[in-house]
Specification:
This protein has helices at residues 9-16, 20-29, 48-52, 58-84; strands spanning 6-8, 35-37, 40-44. The protein is α+β, with helices and mostly antiparallel strands. The protein has 2 domains: 1-54, Multidrug-efflux Transporter Regulator, Chain: A, Domain 2, CATH 1.10.1660; 55-85. It has a 3-stranded antiparallel β-sheet with strand order 1-3-2. Helix 1 (9-16) crosses helix 2. The protein is elongated and about 55 Å long. It starts with 5 loop residues before the first strand and ends with a helix.
């Protein structure tokens, strides 16, 4: 039988480039699945695919597209100037 691997909150925080507190809050809210082990949490390695991303729904894609268009419309010139630096 294959033994499952786990990450701790500090390990996952380092992988994600986030603070431990931010990861802890996501674990507490259920956004990141974890198993409580005593006072600590263990995040199953198999759930990393869900943590790093999931396929976007058409509605999510449309909202992102609208947000990008709005930003380009409002800040297009600033973005061009920043791109030159």
């Amino acid at each position: 039988m294959k033994e499952e691997s786990y990450l701790t909150i500090p390990e996952l925080a380092k992988v994600l480039g986030m603070s431990r507190i931010a990861v802890f809050k996501k674990v507490k809210s259920g956004e990141i699945p974890a198993i409580r082990v005593g006072r600590n949490y263990a995040i199953p390695m198999k759930s990393l695919g869900n943590i790093f991303g999931h396929p976007l729904s058409e509605d999510e894609k449309m909202k992102i597209d609208q947000a990008v268009k709005k930003v380009v419309l409002e800040y297009g010139e600033v973005l061009k100037l920043l791109g030159r630096e």
